[in-house]
Amino acid sequence: MIVEYYGVTDNVCEWHYIHSIIDHLKFDDSVKLHVVSVTPESDYRDKVILDSDVKNIIFGLSDDNMTDNIPQDWKDNAVVFKSYLSPEQERGNVHSLPLGYKYNNRHVSNENLPIINRPFDVFFSGHMSPFPHREDYMSSVIDFFNNLKPKDKPNIDINITEGFNMGIDGEIYSKSMHRAKIAICPPVNVSIETFRHYEAMRSGTIVVSPKLPETKIYKDSYICQVDDWHNDAGHVIMDLLKDLDMLQLVQDKQNDDYINRYSPQAIAKYITDLV
Question: In the chain, N or C: fewer CB atoms in 10 Å?
């Protein structure tokens, strides 16, 4: 398989995950993969020249504004996989692509502990500014915990950092994620999806998230999704923590989800089947 990159280098968050997917794709040189930054801030769409002599596949990355920006030429003459895809855009040759986890020195895979061996109930580490959307989502959960009686409060590990990738050390972040039962996964900007969703699943940590887009990759997922986040997220977390046997079942289902739906091997198969 021939691979070309457009505005995508080894410092992008998706680099390790995308390369792991590519390593598991077994196409020959009759297939060309174009890996393209399509975010408005770094838009390389016009640099892509499709090759009429081969099968063209496109990975469109980094557009967390969920812009409807896939060129008609791509839709007609390539198979497109785009992260941050809305359900309305997923039709014909256009398919959703998971974000995956951040590059490997940010999230390190450790042994996934069973629920009963995880000392922290709830974990979040991330920044608020300049995203009032996230601050709004996190504030409602933090206020909920602060209003609980001391005897009812779970063992939480919440770290508000100064900026993107400016928080705790990657190894500490990974160990903290692996030691928590539940990870709070609020949105950042327009999209509900975050790298944290995948880092948590990779760690065997239960994801609690606002409602995700109903694309192929999330349909029938075992991710815990909360319809009315501001009123119900805290209650959902507490209900999960009340029954550790049930929480272990959820962990088992999410582990299976990660292996069979979101791991690089699974996504390589998903792409191969669609191509």
Answer: N
Number of domains, the chain: 2
How far is Cα 258 from Cα 183, in angstroms, rounded to an integer?
Answer: 15
Is the domain of 133 the same as that of 238?
Answer: yes
4: left (phi over 0), alpha (psi -120 to 50) or beta: beta
Question: How many Cα atoms are found within 13 Å in the side-chain-facing hemisphere of 56?
Answer: 21
- Among residues 97, 131, 166, the one where a domain terminates is 97
Same domain for 62 and 93, yes or no, is yes
More confident residue, 99 or 11: 99
Under 8 Å CB-to-CB from 273, ≥6 apart: which residues? none
Q: Which domain covers residue 175, as residue numbers?
A: 115-262
Same domain for 49 and 134, yes or no, is no
Verify that 173 and 71 share a domain, yes or no. Answer: no
pLDDT digit string, tens, across residues 145-187: 999 999 999 999 998 876 555 567 778 889 999 999 999 999 9
Closest CA to 185 of 205, 169, 165, 168: 205
Strand, helix or coil at 180? strand
Residues 175 and 40 in one domain: no
- Please check whether residues 253 and 148 belong to one and the same domain: yes
Q: Report the b/e string of 176-202 with b at 16+ CB within 10 A.
A: bbbbbbbbbbbbbeebbbbbbbbbbbb
| Residues counted in the chain | 275
pLDDT band at 133 (very low <50, low <70, confident <90, very high): confident
128-131: long-range contacts (C-beta < 8 A, 24 or more apart)?
Answer: 128/160, 129/163, 131/188, 131/189
